[in-house]
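CORE FACILITY INTAKE
Project code: CF-77B
Contact: R.S. (postdoc)
Sample description: multi-component assembly, two entities in total
Requested service: structural model of the whole complex
Turnaround: standard
Below are the sequence entries exactly as provided by the requester. Do not edit them.
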Amino acid sequence: MKNTFICLIVLCAIQNVFAQTDQLKFEPDESYMMNMRDGMMGIEYIEPVVGYKGDPYFNNWTNGEVFLANGERITGLSLRYEGYLDQLLWLKEDFITCVLCKACIKGFNLFDDSDNIAASFIIKKGIRLPFENDSADCFFQTLVKGEYSFYAFRRVIRLSDVFELADDTKYYIFNNDHQYEKLKLRTRDLLNVSFIDKTRMKSIIESNKIRLRDNEQEFIRAISIYNM
Amino acid sequence: MRTRNKIQIFTFILLIIAINDLLIYGGSVNGRDYPADDCEKIFVHLDKIVYVAGENIHYKVYVVNGKSPLQVPESKILYFVLSEHKNGKQILWRVNLNKSTLHGSYQLPESMNAGVYELAAYTNRIKESVPENIFSQELFILNLARETPDSIYMPVSNAVTDNQTRLVTIPDNQPDIRLRASKSVYRTNDKVVLEINMDNLQLNDTANLSLSVLIETPFSGILQNTNIVEQFNRYKEINDKPFFNGLENYAYILNGQVLNKNDGSPVKDARILLAVVDSVSPKIMYSAADSEGNFRFYLNQFYDNKEIILQLADNTENPDILWDIEKKSIPYPGSSDISVPLSTEQMAFLNQAKDIRLIETVYTEEIIGEKKPETMSGISYFACPDIIIVPADYTEMVNFKEITANIIPQLKLKNRKDNYYLEVYNDSKGALNENNLVLLNGVPFRDINYIATLGTQDIQRIEIINSSRFLAGDLKYNAVVSIYTHDMKIPEPYIKNQTLVLQNTVAVTDEENENNEYVAPAQSRSRFPDFRSNLYWNPDLKVCGNNKVTVEFTTSRLAGKSNAKIQGITSSGIPLDASVSFSVK
């Protein structure tokens, strides 16, 4: 009897929480989303590198959502990130692979089988890439989001001499003032970032026994703790 | 023991109710299973009820969700329809609705007939519920260029007598509003002070209000003025009513049907392209009609106040078609209108209103609003062309054939049976192909004979996407050729024969305008003759907690009994209404 009452009180409390969150923004209905999906445009994807070992894709076809530059969101798309061209691919219902226009996209999320976000990418504008004179707009995978954000540019390059496609991921750290620095996965690079407090970061690394060398997860851990 | 069993059964029932409520709320959070009967309540407060054609109707709109008044309204598009009694002629306009309240103005067309009109306001959701949920208010509109009528057409009184109408009981501790004038009698051109007080308003609660002060008209018995409390109480819930025309909770829905011109039968699976003339990049949308020829476009704010051009995609059959576009208006039940003769007093008042409007027209300065920045249209691939050519960079060429032959080797303009067609070289296929999307100033354009006449003096630039096939819905084009001319025009015969043009008009609201008060001419511009019958209008008054707010204005040169009327809602959606009268001698 007592337990039932407790259960009742807990349920009422949860109900009140939901009643409060009821003020959230409305989601568009499915007919709207279907109409948006049906009306999407792009160009057919043609594999840019043929006869090379390996592939340029970050993921297999997975369910995802795209955030457009105008604030709209399109869900329920089969998406794949292509690292060689730095383009977002969409598998249409007629199984034609389509390249979506980078200029219209603000970012995208890829989901896992349980519908949790597996990877989140955003467009970073005006990034200066190594060995290139002009700056470019690139898809960056968000690894840590906060006062100091950590991103991976999942680039794939072509090794012509061995006919192979190779992962050439570059890492970038940004602060809230849009300053950024490119770094390699090593302690020295992280400590030398101009807008990072070297002493504080050093103590975080030591006290948490973080091994940074070539370890993306540990980098994520270090920057996440630094953000706290 | 029996009592204990009863308590257990009672507790179990309570538990079931709690779980049920929890599931309902859980559904509403993700937004997909929102209760179908959660309609919206609407009220519109107008600055006055007698207008002259060409004048602005100033309004404040209050929209709350019927069951969840704390929530912003689900609908994002609000419609106004002004229907003329006697002949049912309608004027429809719409505004974008982003929160529970908005205010703005609408300029009445100069050509309107004099007479009584019904102003209705609704969202798509309200329209599909029951007529009682639609806001309506009778107005009198005069025309400076026409005689004042000696009788008017009015609907037979349709007071709400339905017993099922849900009346809300107002508990004792509900927020209430009081309005008090500093004096009961004022002189002409005198300063009036009105005090607004709130009772029982929570400390963190805010009342969003609008205030109008009008010299009383001899029409108060005929043009009944509703108030927000009455209107909200008139609201009826709808139960499990099917919802046909879509919720405009994200964008404006442009929907309609494609029919064969010959027999009126629907064009099955028609593929439709929507475009607007644009000098930067094409803003095209694609939609496929269903087996009944029904199609739908969701237009975001980029398309507001633009000319929308609809046409079938080039490879769709059935060129002879009719477009039946959903007008979004409500039917006008004009059959019950009766003629009512006007009294001498009423005629005199209307003539005076016309004279005042004439004076205001002469003295009022036009204020030009700032243009709002444009939003982007959506997702397309036109922003990333493979080739951009500006013909002016080259020597002059008189027609498109010369341009393609000399400076664009990827394009071939060919002639077949006296008709030109365009072939484009596709990089991925390594061949020339005819199935291309040709755009003129952002609009799909199939008249290649016209394109063939364009020379370097006409063309501003040419953009080509030919690295791969262009995909739009289930349409597949070998390439895209986008031509921009200096005059940014689409030839009239093409528009007339191949397309349907719609003006997507959206009235601007005052959201960015911080000063919404009527500026009393006597205060600011003393050389102006001041004959205002509307002494004060402020659509954006806010009172926090139980604070007091005072407003000041001057009376005009008109004498008579004046009514101040305040309407509003608290942030928890409770309607507020108060009024006070004073005399001007």
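Facility notes:
- Chain B has three domains: 1-33, 40-240+330-370+509-584, 387-490.
- The radius of gyration of chain B is 30 Å.
Invoice: internal transfer
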